[in-house]
Design brief:
Elements (H helix, E strand, L loop, with lengths): L1 E6 L4 H12 L4 E5 L11 E3 L11 E6 L7 H5 L3 H25 L3 E5 L11 H15 L4 E5 L4 E2 L9 H13 L13 E2 H12 L10 E5 L2
Parallel strand pairs: 1-2, 1-4, 2-3, 4-5, 5-6, 7-8
Antiparallel strand pairs: 6-9
Helix pairs in contact: 1-6, 3-4
């Protein structure tokens, strides 16, 4: 029995989360688009959007998938980008979750987004909110949504445009002014998101906070 079944372990937050799992000596299995060179093949399964193999038994499912968007696309997406984004961040996530639920995996954790809101005029935030609602309707024992602001951490140069540099620059200067209800919108290290999510999953008594929303089935 795996402790964690992880989708998106090669991404920014997913990789930090995987390192925490390995540090604690817990068992895991990875579903990846391309095999990760430093991982044993027995611990990995490759998948495509069109074909997801049967999932192995696990105590927790962790989904850190996300379609790569630039800053401007977070505000406005054309039709082609909307379709590609929805295919990953909604359709694929829900398909994986349903497979996990059918298998009997009791707990699920997903990276979502701060400010997600149903019927938002912002397609990104509305899609994230619809994904959250669909996941909740599946009735996992415990559901964790990590809802961070802009994630900080090492990225490939192709993923860093001038807008990202501006956001991170002003975040350093004005971040201390984000207090109270605005605190959750601050830039945040991806490593910290992974750490808090890992901590909450392993708690016996979950407590919701600004970053991790926890829903426990009664």
């Amino acid at each position: 029995m795996n402790d964690y079944l992880i989708f998106g372990a090669s991404g920014l937050t997913g990789n930090y989360f995987l390192n925490l799992v390995k540090k604690e000596g817990q068992k895991y299995h990875l579903f990846v688009r391309s095999l990760i060179p430093n991982e044993q093949e027995i611990n990995q399964t490759s998948f495509s959007f069109e074909n997801i193999n049967d999932l192995p038994p696990s105590k927790n499912l962790v989904i850190c998938l996300g379609y790569p968007l630039n800053f401007k696309e977070l505000i406005y997406m054309d039709k082609k980008t909307k379709d590609a984004f929805k295919k990953v961040d909604f359709d694929l996530v829900i398909e994986i979750a349903k497979k996990a639920k059918d298998l009997g995996i009791p707990n699920i954790a997903i990276i979502s987004a701060v400010g997600s809101k149903l019927n938002s005029l912002n397609f990104y935030l509305d899609t994230k909110a619809r994904m959250e609602n669909e996941i909740l309707s599946l009735g996992f024992n415990r559901t964790f949504f990590a809802k961070p602001g802009h994630l900080l951490g090492p990225r490939h140069e192709s993923r860093i445009d001038n807008w990202v540099r501006v956001i991170e620059f002003f975040g350093k200067i004005f971040g201390s002014f984000f207090i109270g209800p605005l605190k959750k919108y601050k830039n945040i290290e991806a490593s910290r998101v992974a750490e808090e999510l890992f901590t909450e999953i392993n708690k016996n008594t979950p407590v919701s906070n600004d970053l991790i929303e926890i829903n426990e089935r009664k």
